[in-house]
Amino acid sequence: MIANLFTVAETEPSRLRGALAQLLAVTREAVDVADTDGDQEARRWDCDVGVAFGVGDWQKVSPAQLMNEKGVDARIGDASFTAKQLGDMQRALEAKYSRGEEIDWKRLNDNPKGALEYLTSEAVTP
């Protein structure tokens, strides 16, 4: 099985190892997390769970941005979003940040469709 894991901040491989072990109900020793420098010599290839990072570094992209780029639609709660809508929301949020606008996080967190309406009330184009 292959899965993507998105984090909101960089984390040390040892912390990620512990979090994944707890999440997957396995021992820490069963999880191999590659160092961010891409050193393959220290990898433990016989582990049940293996994690590698892009081209040896952390990617600074949001899940919405990546899903938009890959054409992946999403279902959040009872709301469905196209990849384009996710990208529009991400660009709108970035535009608000760049203009120094205050973000109404309550409107973003309480209702997924309401978040779409709030963020895309202005026309945003890539």
How does this model look, in words?
40% of the residues lie in helices and 10% in strands. It has 126 residues and is mainly α. The protein folds into two domains: 13-51, no CATH class; 63-119, no CATH class. The strands form two sheets. Strands 1-2 form a two-stranded parallel ribbon. Strand 3 (74-76) and strand 4 form a beta hairpin. The longest helix has 16 residues, at 83-98. It is elongated. 12% of the residues are buried.
SSE arrangement:
Layout: H1 13-24, E1 31-33, E2 49-51, H2 63-70, E3 74-76, E4 79-81, H3 83-98, H4 105-110, H5 112-119
Parallel strand pairs: 1-2
Antiparallel strand pairs: 3-4
Helix pairs in contact: 2-3
Content of β-strand: 5-15%
Radius of gyration: 18 Å
* Model regions low in confidence, pLDDT < 50 over at least 5 residues: 54-59
Supply the number of structural domains: 2
Give the total of beta strands.
Answer: 4
Short description:
By secondary structure, the chain is mainly α. It is 40% helix and 10% strand.
Quickly list its features.
40% helix; single chain; 4 strands; 126 residues; mainly alpha; two-stranded parallel sheet
